[in-house]
Amino acid sequence: MIGICFFLMCILTGYSLVCLLMPGLFSFFDTTYTGKKIKFPSVFFIFSLSTVLGIVLISWASYIAAYCSRGLTDPMSVGISVSFMTGAVLFFLSLIIRRKTYISYFKKIFEGATFSDGIIFTIISVFATILMVSSFYVSGDNLNVGVSVMSDFSPHIGMIRSFSKGSNFPTTYSHFAGEDIKYHFMFQFFVGMLEYLGLRIDVAFNLPSIICFICVCMLLYSLAVKLFSKRGVGYIAIVLFLFRSGSALFSYLGKYGGKIQDVLTYLKENNNFLGETIHEDWGLWNLNVYINQRHLALGLCLIIIAVMIMLQYTFDSFNRLMTVQCEEDSFGVAAGRFIRNSFGTKQGYFSGSPMIPVFVGIMLGAGAFFNGACVIAALLVLFMLALISDGRFSYLLMAVITVGLSYLQSSFFINGSALSLRYEPGFLAEVPSFFGICSYLKTLLGILPFVIIAVFLLVNGYYKWIMIAFIAPLVFAVTFRMTVDTAVNHKYIMISCMLVNVFVAALIYKVYKKKGIASKVVATMLLAALTLTGVYDLYTIAKRNDPNRGGMLVLNMESNVTKWIIDNSDAQDIFLSDWYSLNEVVLGGGMLYYGWPYYAWSAGYDTYYREEQAKQMFGAYDSATLDELVRKNNIRFIIVDYAVRTNDLYEVNERVIAETYDVVYREGEGDWIFSIYDTEKRVK
Question: pLDDT tens for residues 269-282?
Fold first, then answer.
């Protein structure tokens, strides 16, 4: 119950912060960007903003306080106490300073809400809950982790438990312990706080994941209405977000001839994600990403909020310049007039209150270690918007604050450079050329690129530029590489699709509203063509995580190994073990010297060095050599189990380990004996 109250306190803290600093946002949805009055509730935007701000602020307040008290027995309790006080101070300040309007703000955000809004978001809430809970839940003493998510959940659970059951300050990576932390871990820290406060781990992880996923849908809905004033556009935008466009399903069906019944049988029996591009079989592009990478939804919220707020500068420029443009102007004259009035006037550089860019900059900058890729994507979009907007210095101020805060965090957590930007066009295309990339995107996204081109040709100039800005992360993804793992750029492409699909939704809605049954049929068919692959992906996710099909990794939360690690080790104790992914050691919060290498390698760690060191330690032929290597690598515990004994990539000299260190835990028989040796206890 305390954990639930803590989460609600976070949302209330975020709401109080909005009341204090940005009260104008409560009237943000009185009009569209072009000034047209609309009856639309701001509750979707304000609730999402409050949730994101609250989580980010309270997490940082807790982390900084816990880090500063890391020498104490229980730094987490100190951190959480400070965050409670932070929330209380902001709440009472907002009541004192905004006492006349605090309640009226709350009432105002519901003005304009409709019954259909309630129905839609009730359905989305149920959908999000089923999506998250069905892939990660506790039954009895067992923790059930879906097959489709167990990859990323390995380091996620390790990081969560390193905080809730340990004291991971200074923070290191659970699958590469003992070095800096290159992984954006703050969402896992927040979940760790919820578990520390008494929520069961599945509830602690699922609850913020569900809420943040719902917030993404709320924000997309709000963005669509703010842009186009039509609720229907928002509903379609949500559908396009949930169910990706792709050619995978149609290509798969094209391989089979025969009767419809045969095709349906093939689809029913298939248990793999469909796709012809590399890694599409990982579920890299569908809903599985959001249940696998739970921190991504909060990052998407940051992007949409920042874009929604800063877009007003773009439309201010549009509304101002339209008063000085002439319809009879030729292109050259119009372009010259635009440049003079946009770049040669004060409004082009100074517009509005500086509080807006400061607010957005702090919000984005503070989100860098929640999801760094989303912060980069937001900056890419906002940079493109700044080129045609009024208030360019507001954009600059926002960017300086964002980059500055991100740099401070990276300097604190990471040794060396956080990113390695390289010009490397191609992404995952087989042929890294312009036409090769186009072919890849066509195969991956199906008809979506063609629909986007059609929309681009139909909208006016300013909307064209906004679409270009929304596509900027995609262009970045296929042009540059920032980490050793090119595949992580997939998030930039998904972000572009999410944003530009708002325009696609507007086209579908416009076609549907035309008179005649033919237009409604065309709009329905277009929506189906854009979403059927994504719908089938959802069916595949359900099958892959079906416990009756063996789709669950089951971990005993009360196992002796898990309990021993929780009771006898801390996050500063490094375990030398086999290359674990997710098991009862990870569930106990064991900090691995060399976990499954993909996680650490893709985060930028030197896995090859540690692989060699692990081989040498396991295979040491005498106690002196073993002990020297153990001290060099700061190993506290050595685990020898069946996986170690049967690993084909190295040989283990268990006799030397047993002759050097005391065994402090043992269970099992024969090759299945599970032993933990304590390197601080030498055999006498």
Answer: 888 888 888 888 88
